[in-house]
Amino acid sequence: MTHSETETAVLYKRGFNDGYLLAKHAPELSAQLAEIESTSPRIEGMKDGREEYIIEQNKIKEHDNIIEDRDRGLEIERD
Question: Contact at 8 Å (CB) between 17 and 49?
């Protein structure tokens, strides 16, 4: 890996982690930052980190809904 590739990877990783944490603690700001048009590795990482947080939260909500439905005795429809 060249120095430039390593630097790009580090910037992306920092952005990813920042984006994840912003989505968790400051979702409004995170949404605004996601609208930025940029090819910066850090910004791209922030967008991807935000998306990862949203995906994880949706999976948690889906799981909670399944458990809630099960506890109420409702049938779960399978595709």
Answer: yes
Q: Is residue 62 part of a domain?
A: yes
CA atoms lying within 13 Å on the CB side of residue 63: 6
Sequence letter at residue 41: P
Task: State how far the Cα of 38 lies from the Cα of 61, in Å rounded to an integer.
Answer: 31
For 50, the domain range is: 3-71
Contact 12/45 with Cβ under 8 angstroms?
Answer: yes
Tally of domains in the chain: 1
71: tokens are 């506890």
Percent of the chain past pLDDT 70, that is, above it, reads 92
Q: Is residue 77 part of a domain?
A: no
Report the mean per-residue pLDDT for the chain.
Answer: 90
